[in-house]
Amino acid sequence: MEPIVFEKSTPGSGSTGRSGGGIRSQFSTPTNVELSAVSREYWDEFEETFDADIRRRQPGYLFVARNQETAESLASDVEMQNRLGIDSEYITPERARELSPGLRIEELVGASYSPRDEFVDPHLVTMALVRALEDDGVDIRRQTKVTDVVTEGGETTGVRTRDGQIDADAVVNAAGPWAERIAAMADVDLPIKPELHRIAFVRPEGKLSGSIPLTMDLDTGAVFRPEDDETVAIGGGSESPRCDPDSFPRSATLEWTHDVLEGVTELSDRFGPGTEVCNTMSGLYATTPDAHPVLEETRPGFVNVVGFSGHGFMHAPAAGKLVTELLCDGSASTMEIGSLSSERFEDGTTMPERSVI
Ligand SMILES: Cc1cc2nc3c(=O)[nH]c(=O)nc-3n(C[C@H](O)[C@H](O)[C@H](O)COP(=O)(O)OP(=O)(O)OC[C@H]3O[C@@H](n4cnc5c(N)ncnc54)[C@H](O)[C@@H]3O)c2cc1C
């Protein structure tokens, strides 16, 4: 196989460069947990394999629940995760406060924690991968936009760029928030919504050590995680508007920042009135109706690896492995991917993921 990568800008210029770099196994569906488990081995070996420092930090993820129903879902998610080999645990609010000092636990009824959930730097990961691919002779064509997908007699046979038509045995659509547009070039209709998600970086009034877990209130959506010993990334908010991937706001509004600060203040006593807002950032999730990706050969020669709904960075290793199997062997063998077919949107067999950050 001689892959060619067409990139309309530069590697990492899309959602990957705006990602939080979070890697977790705490999901509510077995499919997402399995995608995490398949990816885990790769992340564990990444630095050694690629001889690269990717700023790995492993403080774990802590999910807390205010409502009894949410707590019960968390407990059953943990059981399912444990069956699939993930060492997450269901814990009390008191234990949650030990892990995340300052947590306001008066109204919490339960929590779950996974110590191996972690963060890495998406830019360092992208650069390490690009270097390794180019060292292996892979042709990465920067500033080369795919303008059409060529289809002949129901089969995809190549793409068009400013350099003309390039024939291929298969075309893989991995265009993140632009994926719906690439699919449309092949007359394939995929329900992928580019959705705005924002992060603010703040310096909290109270000390929050860099080793505390990402802490998320599943009932309000408020979330924070230390970026380093001084800065904390915060997020949440209910609004995730659809945006044009070619023109969307690159930073957060005052209103959003204010709402999110209120949310984390309700969650932890560390965000007092002296908290400083250092920066804000936004990017796009490529969201499907059930927050699972589409991973399939949609038609002969046209493969979609799209719609990762905010989990595409951490699940990229599994996605790469499964697509390679599809292309080289004709089917995926590492895990069952029938549930990731786009047919689910028509036949109603979707499986909504509850734990979306
Ligand atoms: C604020 C934020 C925080 C996030 N946090 C996390 C997290 O903690 N963990 C996690 O796993 N995920 C996270 N995500 C989601 C994650 O960033 C994405 O799921 C992932 O980066 C998708 O990777 P991708 O390669 O599919 O898409 P992208 O990184 O968007 O890459 C698609 C590429 O396709 C190129 N392209 C588009 N159209 C064309 C064309 N016509 N021709 C040629 N090239 C084209 C683009 O230039 C782009 O570089 C976050 C996202 C955001 C916005």
Description of the structure:
- The chain is α+β, with helices and mostly antiparallel strands and 357 residues long.
- It has eight helices and 18 strands.
- Helix 1 packs across helix 7.
- The longest helix has 21 residues.
- It starts with a strand and ends in a 10-residue tail after the last helix.
- It binds flavin-adenine dinucleotide.
- The site of flavin-adenine dinucleotide has 32 residues, from strand 12 and strand 16.
Describe the secondary-structure layout.
Elements: E1 4-6, E2 22-23, H1 30-50, E3 61-65, H2 68-83, E4 89-91, H3 93-99, E5 110-114, E6 118-119, H4 122-135, E7 139-141, E8 148-152, E9 155-161, E10 164-167, E11 171-173, H5 179-185, E12 193-203, E13 214-217, E14 223-226, E15 232-235, H6 254-267, E16 276-287, E17 294-299, E18 302-306, H7 316-329, H8 344-347
Parallel strand pairs: 1-7, 3-13, 11-18
Antiparallel strand pairs: 2-6, 3-5, 4-5, 8-9, 9-10, 12-15, 12-16, 13-14, 14-15, 17-18
Helix pairs in contact: 1-7
The chain binds flavin-adenine dinucleotide (FAD).
Flavin-adenine dinucleotide binds next to strand 12 and strand 16.
